[in-house]
Amino acid sequence: MQFPYQCLASREATETGAGGWTLFGASGSTLVAQSSSGGTSTWTKPDEPVAEPEPKDEDAEGPPEKKVKLSEPPKQKKANFTNLIVSSDGRYVVAVTGEDKCIRVFETDFENELRQLSERPMTRRPCSIALTSDNSTILCADKFGDVYSLPLIPTPDYQVPEAPAEPVEEAEWVPSATVLTVHSGRNRKTLEDQLKQKKKGPAPPKDEMKFEHQLLLGHVSMLTDIVHAEVDTRRYIITADRDEHIRVSRGIPQAHIIEGFCFGHEAFINKLCLAKSGRLVSGGGDADLFVWDWQNYKLLKKLSILDAVADHFKSRPELGVEEVSKVAVSGIWNVPHQDEILVACEGVPALFSFKIDAMTNTSSATTEYSGAIALKGNALDVTFLPVSPTSSAAVVSIDHVHKPGSTKEVREEKDIHRLQCFSSQENGKWQEDSHTAEMLKSFHDQVFDVEAGSGDGSATGNGKAGLGSADDKALRDMLYSVENLRKRPGAEE
């Protein structure tokens, strides 16, 4: 079975003339590149070498040792891509592989061959990355709430700072309170937690990142997205987290200074997007998209994404989705050369178009919603290919494994294309682009071994289906993780 493209990115390639492009896609742990001329190249992380057993010393005296049957070593887990961006000059591709928490930088040449320049394992799993406007620095937001900066190209002569001296061993900590002095239920629970922590012992030391990096800022909640903005030579870092916060900070080197917050969300925030007009659009677990004048921290408008999703399901009764009570925004993309954004929601086989211009205000919310683009499968990612100086084709990666409108049920149809292409018409509507889809046929036909012996979804040696199978939980978790950000009713704030 072919594995879906969970990440897409693209660049304009003028080496072969005007209208040239290169499309990048991540399918499991493999990165694919195809140019408008038809050339295709791939990159897959090589497996780590397995240590050979030491040879037995035949000259050793004494009886031979008893042979002990050892269990087979666990198979190496593939590191699947979770993020993919391209530098504005098109020379570099920056990607994140989730299982090993690595930030990888690739260089692309005239023939679009992918050459890895560096891999830097972070201590915490990155959730989002961005590049500064000069393409010199990577901004990495992690699930622990911190934002780090790393040079795009590591400094060759960088020296790892010496480790600090060993701390003096402190006396064992003993709680001053006891079960005899604590009476309230809350305080008793706090004491129990302290005693449990004492039994666990001191926390293990944090792994050191042995490459050039700098901690810029931190949230007290899991970060979900990061955007770098530049206005009138002033730079900003905009971050969003699970606890409904949008924070506007100054750019490097003053990222520790908070300019302000955009408050208004009541559920988690998952995606941020700077529209062409300069407005900030945010979405996540709320029923609406929020449009901000982010420099003044002012909410301009709410656009109902829940109503748009519900209306779309009503127009497609064959999907069998009768009622929609909540949505989880999984992607927001700015359409090049247009005051328009496309929005995807987790488990929804459609994209939703909204007009976002500089005049967006608090009047008439219905004027900004343009309509839905029906898809053959749930939307996973979107990128745009420049087909002319003023227009682009939208390439959409869809889930061809699960039924449209579901994140668990396996579809029965076979040979569903993993990509759909659309072009914008003069009336502002999007229409399927068969010409671009035909150009990407070889991109679609790529098949990879996403986990040893299971690239086609067949059973592995242990009798279980591999990562390429539709019923594998690992596949679902990788494709559909946004709804997990939602807090359960009654959970502590």
Automatic annotation (TrEMBL):
The keyword Phosphoprotein does not apply. Residues 454-466 have a biased composition (Gly residues). GO terms for biological process: tRNA (guanine-N7)-methylation. Residues 63-75 have a biased composition (Basic and acidic residues). Residues 31-75, 451-470 are annotated as: Disordered. This is tRNA (Guanine-N(7)-)-methyltransferase non-catalytic subunit trm82. Residues 31-44 have a biased composition (Polar residues). The gene is TRM82. HAMAP family: TRM82. The keyword tRNA processing applies. It is found in: Nucleus. Residues 49-62 have a biased composition (Acidic residues). It holds the Pfam family WD40. Pathway: tRNA modification; N(7)-methylguanine-tRNA biosynthesis. SUPFAM superfamilies: WD40 repeat-like. It comes from the Eukaryota. GO terms for cellular component: cytosol; nucleus; tRNA methyltransferase complex. Belongs to the WD repeat TRM82 family.
